[in-house]
Amino acid sequence: MVIAVNGTSFLHHPFTLASFLPSLPLDSLFSTQGIMVMLLAAYAGAMWMFLTSAPKVYTVMVSDLEIARQLYEGLLDLPAAEVPLHYYYNYEQTIGATGVDPLYMGASPSYSSRMTSGSDGLWYQLKKNTQLHIITGASIGTKNQQRHVCFDHDCLEMILLRVETRGLKFKIRSRKPLNFLVKDYEGRVIEMAEVAN
Question: pTM to 2 decimals?
Fold first, then answer.
């Protein structure tokens, strides 16, 4: 079956911008106000693209950074990640820290040495658009165990899955909040604990 189409009449009519936007007068589109609206829409689109492409970052506080490096790089074989752009500007430090008076921080020198800037610590790629930020700040657990503390259940679930797939010895102590023990090759027991909000 053959259908004859005459394309000559279609090609003789030029398309103008007004044919796509028939109800919008062009003088209002290219006025100062119209250009401002277009610039704001372009800026909103660029910000949306930036924010949706930024990786999700989970933070885990550990009691010893070097032992954590041996666990995450060595045993769990997590690849190193670059520091996300929004961490260069100490974004997470400004979220609630502006109202904290230094008078209430305490005079302990160990506390000031534990405070880190946004890019300090270890950075690992947990999934394609998910990163793991390891910082110091957790206390030593019972029986002098290393502790890794996280506020996010999903983060610890991903770490537990990685522990299981690597064949490491582990013991789940509780599911809610998630708390489990991991034994490394040197016999150290590392407690992974979810802190409930």
Answer: 0.61
**20-38 as b/e, with b when 16 or more CB fall inside 10 Å?**
eeeeeeeeeeeeeeeeeee
Q: In the numeric block, which tokens belong to residue 81?
A: 């990640």
CA–CA distances in Å: residue 22 to residues 15, 16, 30, 37, 178: 12, 10, 15, 19, 59
Whole-angstrom distance, CA of residue 52 vs CA of residue 28:
32
Q: What integer pLDDT is reported at residue 98 of this predicted model?
A: 46
Q: How crowded is residue 60: how many other Cβ atoms within 10 Å of its Cβ?
A: 25
- Classify the C-alpha dihedral 150-151-156-158 as positive or negative: negative
Could you tell me which of 183, 177, 137 has the C-alpha nearest to residue 154? 177
Question: Which domains, ranges and CATH numbers included, belong to the chain?
Answer: 55-92+111-194 (3.10.180)
Instruction: Please state, in angstroms and rounded to a whole number, the distance separating the CA atoms of residues 91 and 118.
Output: 8
Output the pLDDT for position 76. Answer: 92
Nearest to 59 by CA among 91, 23, 105: 91
* Contact status, residue 79 vs residue 124, Cβ threshold 8 Å: yes
Q: 42 pLDDT band (50/70/90 cuts)?
A: very high
The tokens describing 108, both together, are: 């302990």
